[in-house]
Specification:
alpha/beta; 2 domains; six-stranded mixed beta sheet; binds adenosine-5'-diphosphate; binds acetylphosphate; binds magnesium ion; magnesium ion binding; kinase; nucleotide-binding; ATP binding; Aliphatic_acid_kin_short-chain
């Protein structure tokens, strides 16, 4: 009997799932996404073959777990998607888990591994909770299907010790797992393979400065196919600002912002504990705090509607530039390509143009027409001007679900 792979990418405000054929490379047969879980009404995007559906949902979906249940039922019940009608049609479920602690690779969920991941939950409650809730749900409702977890942090295990280590008391650091982990690694793994292939180089000889700029944003220096540094840290809060995240700030700031910083946030539940400081910096900051919108498409426009929108854009550009400069030097100027990925990196021609203009001193130049056109249907699109002086500039349409399905097929035959 032919079986399929279900890949799940759960965030705090959206759940994306894709069903794939079990072959190398896997082919997507359906893709569904519920967003707006934290800002109702939730919206569904569903694609099956050439059919694309977009609708606002009347159902009350308060949590990623509710959204996942809804998507699963909708797909299983869809007569046009008869390939997947029940758990009997699934070979594996792949889950994106942001924080994987010291895990170097994906793991199959067993009582023991789930226990271990639950112990990590406190280190990254805002990011791991939804994924773990969905894993627990799958174990309960689809018990015959093995779950495999893929970690955003695993790709960055190769960072040197001096990059991973924070200059704090090392006994305390080790006892509490306080180090730089880095995230978006499933995406960087997809980007590395796809861009190396596009450039016609072996991945292990490829050097990139890769940017995953979405509502969570990060940047990674890849040397000889390995992450040597990245902008996120112990949690995804560090580094670049995001839709609701401050990115790096002076850590003392939060104690001047509120004297409740260390107290539990009202958003905490009996199962999930987060401090007021984490709540403020992760959920009430970023461009939402500056402009009122979490939609960067409203900010990245030629004529920003307010000064605050202009400022939000300039802040993101400034912070990204700082990392590009730093990583260019860390890579000794030997950079094959500057890669734009993530919802914003892939779609905002203005962000790409503004950043590359400011990187002229590195020999970077783009073709403005190709940049405006964007990547279209191509996974990797070269937008360089072709003068051949500096690093190439490419757009890569990253795909975390595909990456998980691909590795499942490759490693499990
Ligand atoms: N044309 C565009 N210009 C700028 N930003 C865009 C555009 N289209 C989408 N975006 C932004 O992409 C972001 C979502 O990116 P994505 O990588 O899907 O995020 P995440 O996976 O973190 O939810 C949103 O902030 C959205 O506004
Ligand atoms: C790690 C992280 O920030 O993920 P996302 O961009 O999906 O929020
Ligand atoms: Mg994302």
């Amino acid at each position: 009997m032919v079986k399929y792979i279900l890949a799940v990418n759960a965030g705090s405000s959206s759940v994306k799932v894709t069903f794939y054929t079990y072959e190398n490379p896997p082919k997507a047969i359906a893709d569904a996404q519920v967003s707006g879980i934290t800002a109702p009404p939730p919206a569904l995007k569903y694609q099956r073959g050439d059919v694309k559906i977009k609708e606002k949902l009347e159902e009350k979906l308060d949590t990623p777990q509710d959204a996942f249940k809804y998507i699963l039922k909708r797909c299983f019940d869809d007569p046009e998607l008869s390939e997947v009608a029940s758990d009997a049609d699934l070979a594996y479920i792949c889950h994106r888990v942001v924080h994987g602690g010291d895990y170097m690779d994906s793991v199959k969920i067993t009582d023991e591994t789930l226990h271990h991941l639950e112990a990590l939950e406190d280190l990254a409650p805002l990011h791991n909770f939804s994924a773990l809730e969905i894993i627990r749900l799958c174990r309960k409702e689809l018990p015959s299907v093995p779950s495999i977890t893929f970690f955003d942090s695993a790709f960055h295990q190769t960072m040197p010790l001096h990059v991973k280590t924070y200059p704090i008391n090392q006994k305390i650091a080790q006892a509490n797992g306080l180090r730089k982990y880095g995230f978006h690694g499933i995406s960087y793994s997809f980007i590395l393979r796809s861009v190396a292939q596009f450039l016609g180089k072996p991945a292990e000889k490829t050097n990139l400065i890769a940017m995953h700029i979405g509502s969570g944003a990060s940047i990674c220096a890849i040397k000889d196919g390995k992450s040597i540094d990245t902008s996120m840290g112990l949690t995804p809060l560090a580094g670049l600002p995001g839709a609701t995240r401050s990115g790096s700030i002076d850590p003392s700031l939060v104690f001047h912002y509120t004297n409740e910083a260390g107290k539990l946030s009202p958003a905490s539940t009996t199962e999930m504990h987060i401090s007021t400081a984490e709540e403020i910096l992760n959920k009430q900051s970023g461009w939402k705090a500056l402009t009122g919108t979490t939609d960067f498409a409203e900010i990245a426009v030629e004529h920003p509607p307010t000064e605050a929108h202009k400022l939000a854009f300039e802040i993101l550009v400034d912070r990204i530039l700082g990392y590009i400069g730093s990583y260019y030097v860390k890579l000794n100027g030997q950079v094959d390509a500057l890669v734009f990925a993530g919802g914003i990196g892939e779609k905002s021609a203005l962000l790409r143009r503004t950043l590359t203009e400011k990187c002229q001193s590195l020999g970077v130049a783009i073709d403005s027409e190709t940049n405006e056109e964007g990547a279209g249907d191509e996974t990797v699109k070269d937008i360089s001007q072709g003068t051949g002086k500096g690093p190439r500039v490419v757009i890569c349409q990253t795909n975390e679900q595909f990456e998980m399905a691909y590795h499942t097929v490759c490693s499990r035959g």
